[in-house]
From TrEMBL:
Protein name: Uncharacterized protein
SUPFAM superfamilies: NHL repeat (SSF101898)
Length: 220
């Protein structure tokens, strides 16, 4: 990588996307062969790609729905911009991103697309998860804040194939499971299962394994 990577996702088509905010770039990779397939860079210094999210169950070979969203910051405004047909276009000069992307909170540092147009986001400096639904008819959307009393500073979000949301956070040694409207279902994993200051988590392609990275440790 030419610059420090910040976020990485792998779609259902087994295509990887790595964000590099410091160079305003997004890199498309083959995760098995570890080769770069494509790189897109914005020439506008006011545009950067913060993070990315793969959409679950978007088709193993042929895309049956949007496979991936990028959180693109354009002059201080954040948009969830869809990647379709493996094409990445970082050109805001014509208003392409702002006209086709879904508006998001400008403080988003991590987000997860549960399905097309429904996002769960970690917000910089805040102790809640923001739920954004842009999947309604037209461009109408709504947002709500999911406050979790037993979690400080959410760090990462993922979902299983039953559309349950899993969230990790600083200052706690557990993983929360939420519904799509942001309500806490339960705490399926805690320190008894080896959870210590979790900072990142994701499921494998078959959704039968949940990988969790503990903060300050060199193990999953």
């Amino acid at each position: 990588m030419e610059s420090q990577p910040y976020d990485v996702v792998i779609t259902s088509q087994n295509t990887g996307y790595v964000t590099q905010p410091n160079t305003r770039s997004i890199v498309q990779i083959d995760p098995d062969r570890l080769i770069v397939l494509h790189k897109a860079t914005s020439n506008n210094k006011c545009t950067s790609v913060m993070c990315a999210s793969a959409v679950p169950n978007s088709g193993r070979d042929i895309e049956v729905k949007v496979p991936c969203y990028l959180a693109v910051n354009v002059s201080g405004s954040m948009y969830a911009y869809s990647v379709k047909n493996y094409r990445i276009i970082l050109n805001d000069d014509t208003g392409h991103i702002s006209s086709t992307g879904h508006p998001m909170d400008s403080r988003v540092v991590k987000f997860h697309a549960v399905k097309n147009g429904i996002f769960f986001s970690c917000i910089s400096g805040q102790n809640y998860i923001k739920v954004t639904n842009c999947a309604l008819q037209g461009w109408d959307s709504y947002e709500q804040d999911a406050k979790i009393g037993t979690m400080n500073t959410p760090t990462d979000i993922c979902s299983d194939n039953n559309e349950h949301i899993y969230a990790s956070g600083q200052g706690c040694n557990n993983i929360h499971r939420l519904t799509q409207d942001g309500k806490v279902l339960d705490i399926p994993l805690d320190s008894r299962h080896g959870i210590t200051q979790p900072v990142a988590l994701c499921f494998n392609q078959n959704y039968d394994k949940l990988y969790i990275a503990n903060g300050g440790e060199h193990r999953f």
